[in-house]
Amino acid sequence: MPSTLVIGGGPAGLAAAWAAVQSGDAVTLLDDNPALGGQIWRGEIPARYRRFLDPRITIRTGVQIHSATQLPKADRIILATGTRERFLPFPGWTLPHVLGAGGLQAMVKSGLPIAGKRVVVAGAGPLLLAVAAYLRKRGAKIVLVAEQAPYQRVSRFTQSLWRTPGKLLQAAQLALGLRYRTDAWPLRADPGSVTIQGHGVLPCDYLACGFGLVTNTELPELLGCRVDTGAVITDSKQRTTVPHIHFAGAGSVDRSILEGQIAGFDLERARALYPARDAAVRFDRRIDEAFQLRSELSTLATPETIICRCEDVPFSAVWQQRDWRSAKLQTRCGMGPCQGRICGPALEHLCGWPAASVRPPIFPTRLENLLDLRD
Questions:
Q1: Cβ neighbours of residue 280 under 8 Å, at least 6 residues apart?
Q2: Can you give the pLDDT at residue 303?
Q3: Residue 93: inside a domain, yes or no?
Q4: Residue 28: strand pairing partners
Q5: pLDDT computed for residue 375 by the predictor
Q6: Residue 254's domain spans which residues?
Q7: pTM (2 decimals)?
Q8: Which of residues 211, 244, 270 is at a domain's end?
Q9: Which of 287, 310, 337 is the last residue of a domain?
Q10: Cα 34 to Cα 282: distance, rounded to the nearest angstrom
């Protein structure tokens, strides 16, 4: 029986594991979180997708892959490493009440009291509305949803949703009753408040920021998969440039599930899903175009603004470097516990620097793991 190893337990990984089982493979799924669902579902897998939890799948949670040598043997590997939020630095972005939009949502799901708290949600993309609607449902007072994209682009995108009535209805339900403004972004945060472009100083208990998503390409790169402009290169079957490795799940939930199924199914069943997957890819591209980051966001950081939060590196120490590698060597920027996952995408936007080469371990790990101690 062919063996398939799936890394990542979000929508794409769950769909891939389920599809591979349907195709007759022996499937093992690894995820670094305590519960399945990824950053989107976080253990709260919707009822219509619980079929993906097939009992024939061997599931191991709390497992973090830090190097290529750590991978179990398998005939095929499906990487579903997901995405993370992009953070852009501005004065005050390291204050305790400034969090990622998805991060605050995750903390509330884990028990953080939010009822009665004043929240400003700011950044780029449809995720802002989804987070704001969730927080409001949990009792938060949403002061403002600040979208940095221009009104014209957002309006054109909204009008185009008539092609997908379901998504239009979903957007309308999320936005209902929220104070949503375009051409608005955080200029600075101070204890208990945030200054928003065009709206002045707004008192708040939390500022939830998210400037789009960044694909987690560290493990694919470590395994030799080709990555271009932040995207893992795949063919129509989701195969990477390494023959036995597939990659899925770098977009919306719908797209991630389709990509996961295509990666897991045999070729005949996968081909039947190509049209739906391609339509989902086109929709994601329309989102990217509508909510692309404006140039003003690259001018918010002052010389004193901390760029690397792990190593407390200010922007003034970084901007004179010639590239990302030089910044790491001269300032230790990107060499802290997050290994550049936060400051890397920020500096790519601010300075145009692509990320430096990936080296193991890609996560902080115990010495015994580096020594690869075995019986």
A1: 251, 252, 254, 255, 258
A2: 94
A3: no
A4: 5, 58
A5: 44
A6: 3-84+214-287
A7: 0.92
A8: 211
A9: 287
A10: 33
